[in-house]
What does this fold into?
Amino acid sequence: MAYYVTTPIYYVNAEPHLGHAYTTIAADILARHMRQRGEDVFFLTGTDEHGEPVAQAAERLGVTPRELADRNAPRFREMVARVGATNDFFIRTSDEQHVAAVQEILQRVHDRGHVYMGLYEGWYCPRCADFKTEGELLDGRCPIHKIELARESEENYFFRLSAFQEPLERLYSERPGWVLPESRYNEARSFIDQGLSDVSLSRSSLTWGVPVPWDADHVFYVWFDALLNYYTALTYAREGEDLTERFWPATVHVMAKDILKFHAVIWPALLMAADLPVPERLFIHGYLLMEEEKMSKSLGNVIDPFEAIDVFGVDALRFYLFREVAFGGDGSVSPEGFETRYTTELANEYGNLASRTLAMVARYRDGAVPDAAPQADLAADFDGLAERVCERLDAVDVSGALEEIWRRVRRLNQWIQETAPWRLAKDPEAGEQLDAVLYEVVEGMRVISILLHPFMPDATARLLAAIGAEDHSVAAARFGGEPLGSVADLQPLFPRVEREAQPAA
Ligand code: MSP
It folds into this structure.
């Protein structure tokens, strides 16, 4: 089955920070997991390069918007690579193929009668590139960026969003799971229920954008150009091949709640206006907070993902973010919390489990994993685990899936305590029992590591290689599966980290 997952495309006016890494890693975990299930996966990320935020930032720096985009897009590309993301394409909205495809689709929307010329007046936030309603303002300021907003008016083309009131109501009634979590579905639905107004589709005061094909004085409002990336990318991601048939509609768009309205209201309406199928699902996660504030460049309270990776490694970062914060809600992260989880969970619970087990197999059985039958009670604890992880990830519950797996990491540690193989090794009568325990623990680690692989690709691959497990598919993640051979040496998976080298908050 086709599985198409996306992240938002990130604005190139700022540098990549942990918030961007967070969504990118979540989408990557889904993509890797679905590949392990043998699905036909396409994973898209990229940069949003047009519009007011970028034009203004460029002006402040005394460069052209294109220069700024060319300078910063590679930083996002680098961030994506550094967090271990296996995206199939990286779109830049300044790509000429994207620009041409946007023009073609929006011309169609125009020709189908969904566009008209009108006067726009409202409170405009240049950082959001969005007009705010009176009710959204906080003391005359943008609720997100906290900057004072000016009243602006301009002749614009409008998109007849109001004409999609009923089709959107129908979409929400027919597909209750189309926006997750449910609280976000309710939020979007109540926004629609309040009655939709038409939205500005173009800007005439700006030149940095996709030119409106029927009026050279206008460029498209950046959000229309940006949303369409999910669709246009498929038309040119592979040279000489159009992937649209294979991957559209998208399976899931992942993002934070800041851009819910655009994706849950405008995006499906725009697709309907262009006569295209709407995506299957949106998953809206919360904010990573530092000391209770949303992490963002403009507020200056960011953890640098590059520094965190330098200190703890990429696997640890990927693990920490989904262990610390329940995916979907807001949650605080901190360098101290990171270090604690690194030590207690990664180094002690998983890393030590691996090194202890391999050392026992080496010492008691010359490195050969015994071929024994597993005992019923431990096997029962692994029963249905792969299915539950699949269910959780089908529901985009990334941290729920991780919790399912981690309970088994703890179960194995407990099993070692209970069965005390070091004591069995001293008892000449207990050979079979020792065989069974060693087999079970290695087997449990195999199953866990396959399922953990999308979360921590490097450490799990090393462990799987050390126990000679070649098949990394979810189908192989069944306890009591394949016979294992002998174990190889393994360097510590999560070595001790020097305290002084903590990432700066
Ligand atoms: N360019 C638009 C999106 C267009 S998508 C068609 C945009 N860009 S952005 O650079 O501001 O990125 C916003 C997204 O970055 C959020 O929706 C989220 O995915 C991620 N995050 C940025 N800061 C974050 C946190 N502090 N916490 C969680 N996610 C964060 O909006």
Residues 8-11, 19-20, 22-23, 48, 226-227, 229, 255-256, 258-259, 287-288, 294-296 surround 5'-O-[(L-methionyl)-sulphamoyl]adenosine (CB under 6 Å). Residues 335-365 form the longest helix (31 residues).
